[in-house]
Design goal:
3 helices
């Protein structure tokens, strides 16, 4: 099953109380007077999404993994193995999902003023940079310079 999606807004407060994910479907035929979203009327507009893909997009999770004993190349290899395993696990269900795995990575500098919280902020920043670059990206952010 597929839906035509007119627009998504992942983080909005304009559609009701609190933050929420907003999704508009395409192809409305009601023709209400003074319609707020006339751009959603064209049944050929928007983007065609598989319902299963939509569920995967809406259920996207973020997580952190603390790795030790790896350099840049080791982290890239770990990311590649994780992405392959992720695809393999989804394929075992036989679902036609078009998913990807993006990641942000940084270093925790033990023995410095660096904190786990600061490292998570850097990793999160790198993750959003990876997402901005497109699907299936790994962005590695350098650790803060030591004195």
């Amino acid at each position: 099953m597929q839906l035509r999606i007119a627009q998504t807004v992942p983080d909005t407060e304009a559609e009701g109380p609190g933050k929420r994910f907003a999704l508009w479907v395409q192809g409305c035929t009601l023709g209400c007077a003074g319609c707020f979203n006339p751009a959603t009327h064209d049944p050929r507009g928007g983007e065609l999404w598989a319902v299963a893909d939509l569920a995967a997009r809406l259920a996207g999770d973020e997580f952190a993994a603390l790795l030790t004993g790896l350099d840049d190349v080791g982290v890239a290899g770990w990311y590649q193995r994780l992405a392959e395993r992720f695809r393999y696990e989804l394929d075992t269900f036989g679902l036609d999902l078009h998913t990807s795995l993006s990641a942000g990575q940084t270093w925790l500098c033990v023995g410095t003023e660096d904190s786990l919280n600061q490292a998570l902020v850097r990793a999160d920043r790198a993750l959003y940079e990876a997402k901005a670059r497109g699907r299936g990206q790994l962005v590695q952010e350098d650790a803060p310079a030591t004195e």
